Amino acid sequence: MEQILSSNSSDSPLRLALVAHDAKKADLVDWVRQNTSLLQGADLFATGTTGTKILDASPQLKLTCLKSGPLGGDQQLGAMICEGKLDALFFFIDPMSPMPHDVDIKALSRLAIVYDIPCAHSPSTANFVLKGLFSQRETGA
Ligand SMILES: O=C(CO)COP(=O)(O)O
């Protein structure tokens, strides 16, 4: 957490959170691989298991692994949102399985809405959000 930037401006790297439930981890790892050229310009933060899998597949990325989701990683990301330390959340949720840390998942999703940061729950939405963020940077909009 010490590496987290306290503020962001258009010339500093985007700060992006990457999270996926077990059934969706392969989708997120694939999506990251497909978008490596954009993502390697960002500061990435991920819950523990998700981050480890992403780094196995894409070791060139600048990614900080937090705690595993069920052990508090979702809450760490929520705290970062509250503190203005994340620019977007890419959270591939498994809609078919009950989760022991459901309250943490809801809290993280809720804070993304409260603080109005862009949030994507699937690859197609993630494509729009990522391209939108980078084009906003380019145009200064
Ligand atoms: O459970 C998660 C998000 O709710 C993800 O946590 P892991 O990346 O540690 O599996």
Automatic annotation (TrEMBL):
One of its GO terms (biological process) is methylglyoxal biosynthetic process. The keyword Lyase applies. Substrate binds at residues 21, 25, 47-50, 68-69, 101. PROSITE patterns: METHYLGLYOXAL_SYNTH, MGS. It holds the Pfam family MGS. It is an enzyme of class 4 (lyase). CDD domains: MGS (cd01422). Gene3D superfamilies: Methylglyoxal synthase-like domain (3.40.50.1380). InterPro entries: Methylgl_synth, Methylglyoxal_synth_AS, MGS-like_dom, MGS-like_dom_sf. The active site is at 74 (proton donor/acceptor). It catalyses: dihydroxyacetone phosphate = methylglyoxal + phosphate. GO terms for cellular component: cytosol. The keyword Magnesium does not apply. GO terms for molecular function: methylglyoxal synthase activity. Keywords: Lyase. Residues 8-141 form the MGS-like domain. It comes from the Bacteria. SUPFAM superfamilies: Methylglyoxal synthase-like (SSF52335). Its EC number is 4.2.3.3. Catalyzes the formation of methylglyoxal from dihydroxyacetone phosphate. PANTHER family: METHYLGLYOXAL SYNTHASE. Belongs to the methylglyoxal synthase family. This is Methylglyoxal synthase. It comes from Ruegeria meonggei.
